[in-house]
């Protein structure tokens, strides 16, 4: 686009070598070439050409630029084009100038002001072999190492059988892009400031409405905090409600990948067994009656898929009321129910408000959004808002606003309805393929809810070994024992199906059968 920009030694500018040194050099425009065929606006092309020449030092620091009128004539463009190109480079700091005394190449270029000495950046960081961590830091680091994902990456054709990932192939990307664009056009200015730590008000209202109707959650919008996913909800609860040394009931098997938040709070996990009715409340009371918190997944226990019975729900709430303890209900994938009416949330049953309720958009939309919600009793709203504000202020405002539009324009319920049909079909494909190909190797029974199933191995077969064999065949199939703390029981593989297109599911089941045989 641009050729050379040489210093002009015309009569009016310089007449002798001595004067060249005293007066600033003046640019020549003779070889500035603007190419109309690229489609880029001329003023942008000109600004780019000048910037390139400045960076390559063809226009040295201090060089005086031609006046806008003269350059416009020489390039045969409008004077506005040149004015705008100069204005842009002035704003970016490549040029300096004052009205009446001309425009010059800046002596300090922005690149220099915005970067450190390159050599310093390339020096390797000094290694300290064993950095001294806080007890909390060490506990978190150690806990995280235990829940590392299988070594291979995530990509197309490599989704089977990741649990908890929705159908990314059905993400409403065009619609999302449109909502994002509209929001930006309409109100970008309003979205550039802080919002309250508890979240963007229209989204809190939309979530409160949705939860009342779909999940029987009793709340007003002021009780809803928008958080960066369930992980942050758990972390906030641990920080606000637990002191170091306090005990917390966790389901065993359970959502172990989140447990680092309890280590970070210095709390002690008490693994409580799960049976066909969900968390065994009596066992919890025997093991640790004075726990401060119980974390449960009553709608669809993770990972077993068990629905907590009404009897157990009542027992859990009664224990919490008696012991002045809290219950944290993780309702992570309850949108996806394929038959019958859903059991309402535990939170809706708790008249004395000892339940905190959390849900996530990771399963309905994408885990990459990092958006979810936490509903807290009114008495805890201030403490949780203060904690959220202290840790990281609030979730990104633009994303919250787009999600609010997604709700208020009816897209959320439409999307959930579509995904229910899709996931029911995917589950059926998995179950049928398993009946054909995994007979005697893995017992995969259908469930009315959720995004994954557990395939049960024959008694005595080690699920870690089975999971490793699956991994060597290019499949993610977590062993059930990856989610166990102290419980023992029949081995199984956790099979996520929601993110796997049907053709891929059938092929993955064949591969799993070969791996297990
Ligand atoms: C039991 C359970 N809770 C919550 C989540 C979602 O976590 P987040 O909202 O932090 O993505 C998952 C995801 O796999 C899960 O399995």
From TrEMBL:
Keyword Magnesium belongs to the record: no
Biased composition, class Basic and acidic residues, residue ranges: 120-132
Region (Disordered): 1-21, 120-156
Keywords of this entry: Aminotransferase, DNA-binding, Pyridoxal phosphate, Transcription, Transcription regulation, Transferase
Gene Ontology molecular function: transaminase activity
Keyword ATP-binding: no
Domain HTH gntR-type: 40-108
Entries under SUPFAM superfamilies matching the protein: PLP-dependent transferases, Winged helix' DNA-binding domain
Pfam families (alphabetical): Aminotran_1_2 (PF00155), GntR (PF00392)
Family: In the C-terminal section; belongs to the class-I pyridoxal-phosphate-dependent aminotransferase family.
Protein name (record): PLP-dependent aminotransferase family protein
Species name: Pyxidicoccus parkwayensis
